[in-house]
Write a structure and sequence with these properties.
mainly alpha, 5 helices, 0% strand
Length: 187
């Protein structure tokens, strides 16, 4: 444009088609610049989207691994107390003359069991809560029974304990079975 102005100032005539050509070239260049800016923006957003999708995929994979670990901890905790629960179920029936030491139910990692059950279904979480209630109550009754002098132990405590453990065993079996089933579906 500057060259055309200098040419015109030196006394030469500039044809209108030159101005039109300059305007069309400027418009084409402006359109190209707008397209290039938009194209670069789309490419940048596509890369950001791909990066975000990869992050979400990694986070989902980490959550799945954490869930697997929680399921394994929960199953380990349940498998760990199962023999003791079954033993106390038999002892509480009528074999409490020489009882084993007091159990510690529910185990310290019970929140993991409750969390894992809640990951499966809300109903399974309720099963875990019911089992926790039965085990806590049975543990309390057993501790009370064992803390009494041998000659004054109240057999009614063992009857109540037996009733709680009879209720707890199917709950524990259901919980274990459904957690195993969920673990298989996650793998």
């Amino acid at each position: 444009m500057a060259l055309v102005t200098v040419w015109q100032n030196t006394g030469h005539r500039v044809a209108p088609s030159i101005y039109w050509s300059i305007a069309i070239i400027a418009l084409v260049f402006a359109f190209y610049q707008a397209w290039l800016d938009e194209h670069q923006r789309v490419v940048r957003l596509g890369a950001e989207l791909a990066s975000e999708v990869a992050k979400q995929h990694d986070a989902a994979k980490q959550r799945q691994e954490a869930t697997k670990k929680d399921l394994l901890r929960a199953l380990t905790a349940l498998n760990g107390i199962e023999p003791e629960v079954l033993n106390w179920k038999d002892v509480s029936l009528d074999k409490y003359g020489m009882p084993p030491p007091a159990p510690e139910w529910p185990p310290d990692d019970w929140p993991t069991v409750a969390y894992a059950a809640g990951c499966v279904t809300p109903e399974l979480r309720q099963t875990a809560d019911s089992l926790e209630h039965c085990l806590t109550k049975a543990n309390s009754l057993i501790s009370r029974f064992l803390s009494m002098p041998v000659t004054y132990r109240d057999a009614r405590l063992m009857a109540a304990t037996h009733k709680l453990l009879v209720e707890a065993v199917p709950l524990m079996s259901t919980l274990q079975a459904q957690l195993r089933q969920f673990e298989k579906s996650v793998q």
